[in-house]
Amino acid sequence: MRKRDLMFDLIIYNRALKRFISFILSREFIVNSKIYQAKYQKEIKKKIEKFAKKPHRVMIENTNACNANCSFCPHGKMQRKVGFMSLDLYKKIIDQCARNSIDYVTVYGFGEPLMDKDFIERIQYAKQAGLKRVTTNTNASLLNSDKARELLESGIDEVYISFDAASEETYKKIRCNLDFNSTKKNILNFVRLRNDKNSTTKIYLSFVESDDNKHEVKRYIQEWKGLVDGVSVSLIHNWTGDIESKEFIYKKSLLRDPCRLLWMDMVINWDGKVPLCCNDYEAKVELGDINSQTIMEVWGGQRLELIRQNHLKKEFGHIPICVNCQYNFHYKSPWWVSK
Question: Is 265 within 8 Å of 58 (Cβ atoms)?
């Protein structure tokens, strides 16, 4: 089994621990204390030295088309043109990842990846290029038997499935235009096929907790925990302020720290443009363009470096989408959750 970040996995798959971390990050007397800040700044410096040379992960948006309309997602507000990444551009990105020993890619962006007719070919190409960790996220509504078989045979390492309810009634409130029963059937069939084939593909379920579904969390975990490799109950964040999140109300008095996404992940949209991060779904901040630049040129570029310096100096007002973003106080945001 691949060596994984045990601390990160523990946080992702332990709901109580997530809530405890979120509680800590929302308490001024903890976050603003000199002891916390002194220790945390040392941790940030250490991680920056480790991750600054190249992306830990490259997130490749094969498409931003989506067949869902989810209550917690701002996709319906998106003004960005909808499209599919060309295979030539995709292969160029994968080849660069392989040359630079970037072994972790997620083929997924601000859309449903299975809407892409070339999706399986993309996964196969990444694995044939020698990448060690290739993952995707899907709502599983299009994961029929044929697609499930093809996906398992592609060699994909991890599949994260967004399925946010234990009942049809609740599912309709959250994923308004998808069918609960057929999607659940797809997931169960995918798990069965994986087991029958003795496939090494890991299957994880993701549940975004909201007022509409929080009463079903325990039932959901009990139902799925023995069937899949992990069940993650996530807390809502506000997508840089574009949607309301009652889970955490950002207080201006809280001291903010540099966002680790700037040193960890690179996102490449379907058209080759590189936005600031995965939360910049409208690509308001453009770091570069892989059509004319390399991954390493963008990663070491002046635009990203300037924004990193703004974060290190805690001058968040220079980057409008960062001003009201809650991700800095999300349970996945602390630098100490990753090795």
Answer: yes
